[in-house]
Amino acid sequence: MIIVAKDGSGDFRSIQDAVDALPDTAEGEGARILVREGEYRERVVIHKNGVRLEGADREGTVLAWNGCAKDTYPDGTEKGTFLSATLTVTGRDVTVENMTVRNDAGDGRKAGQAVAVYAAGDRGIWRCCSLLAHQDTLFCGPVRLPNLGEAIGSRAGCAEAYTRVEDGPLTRSRQYFEECLIRGDVDFIFGPYRCWFEGCTLFMNERGGWYTAANTNEAQPFGFVFHNCALTGECAEGAAFLGRPWRKWARTVFLACEMDAHVAPEGFSDWDAERVITGRCGEWRTSGARADQRTRHPAQKRLTDAEAAEITVDSVLAGEDGWQPYRA
After folding, report:
1. What's the CA gap between 302 and 296, in Å, rounded?
2. Phi-psi bin for 16: left (phi > 0), alpha (psi -120 to 50), beta?
3. Angle at 176 between CA 172 and CA 180, to 5 degrees
4. pTM of the model
5. Which residue, 182, 69, 60, is CA-closest to 119?
6. CA nearest neighbour of 195 among 167, 227, 170
7. Per-residue pLDDT tens over the stretch 54-88
8. For residue 107, with 0-12 CB atoms within 10 Å meaning exposed, 13-18 middle and 19 or more buried, which class applies?
9. Element (H or E) spanning 184, and its range?
């Protein structure tokens, strides 16, 4: 195990230095990084497989940066969304737990998109984490080429990579989130990967917007699945929509989730005339102030018990390798 401590009492003062020091073939305790309490202001790329990044305290161990889409290259052009992340994971089988990852660039109306976590690898596990930002908090999708690949260089890991991740390519990668707080506004959980969110809290900032913006490929059976999650916020009542389709065939479902009055009665909404809600977006057994699905977008799916029973962690994430993150 490697220990990171700001005060110099560990093996490293920097999380990135600890990741870089791991051997490429590290396993088990040899790939575990324990981060002691403190605020670590740095960008981090976890590019090695099997890394376990563990904070000493969920609220007290904070990784923070202020990258944003409006940051510029030397020629003055803006870098855009995908170079703004505080933490980028390009390795496979990476677990992050018990810590806060924050992008504090501020309100997207001034800073533009500002990603806290860029989850690009396969079989990622996130437990008891707080992921905090404003616009575009969490991206679950491949490395965007060429700009991100050029920026991280040798830390590109083994993640999928595409020239335009915005087009929602058919992907194989998966992410699992358990008991996490994810806070943001305007499409703050977005991307094409298959993701399962178990017992998480989704918190909409004052600005309002959409909890999700999936761009699932039409041929992909699953996108984002939220199970036993709580949806709330500090925006005006009804100003937090469940999602809108970044790509027309976005796949997002909410199963047995509690939704308070911050959630829009309409549930999902269309993005534009081409990217519209279909039956691939839906709900099952919603509770709370927005339990009545009769007010929802007319095209979204009201799942039956039988249909919901077919959407399980295994059906969404297991894949050909039988991955079971809830047992890891």
Report:
1. 9
2. alpha
3. 150
4. 0.98
5. 182
6. 227
7. 999 999 999 999 999 999 999 999 999 999 999 99
8. middle
9. strand 181-185
